[in-house]
Predict the structure of CD276 antigen homolog.
Amino acid sequence: MIIGWCFICVFAVLINKVSLDVKVVGFTGSSVVLPCSSIQHDLKPQDMHVLWRDKDSETIYDLIEGKDSLETQDPRYKNRAQTFPEEYERGNFSIKLSNLTHADAGEFNCFITHSSYSNQETVWLFINESTVETGNQSTEEENQVPETQSNWIKTLLICVCLLTLITSIIALSTVYFKFCRNKSHQAPI
């Protein structure tokens, strides 16, 4: 039984490390926030490197030791990508990408590195036609809805997997103990 609980604990830790990609929807001509955060909030931004890369591995934005480093920024992102320096201390290294075009759609990667910690987050950006013509102005909150759905799906998946695992362990344990009890009650022939 102890082995079963150890397995559950290891499984829970491993499933927590597996994260679903974040999906964000933006509209042509508007802005969107691409989320990226460190799960370790006790790290100082001046001791970290945060690198944002697009689907072609081009530089979107770099933060080296807590400071902007835009020398290698791809010209497509010049004056379009911005960070939130007031959020660095909280481990939030999200970027805001403005003036979206269909060419921006695709995979974005955020790499956070520290001497004792590293993390990579993948964000998928989907671009829809602007809704301004119909009078519906999109907001950044609307753009974040897919991330909330992704988190909800991740939580549901973890719960279902853990529930299935626990049920299987209980069922197998019950069968095993009944088998052992029946075997010990049988008289030798």
Remarks:
- Helices lie at 2-17, 140-143, 145-185.
- DSSP finds three helices and nine strands in the chain.
- The CA atoms of residues 39 and 91 lie 7 Å apart.
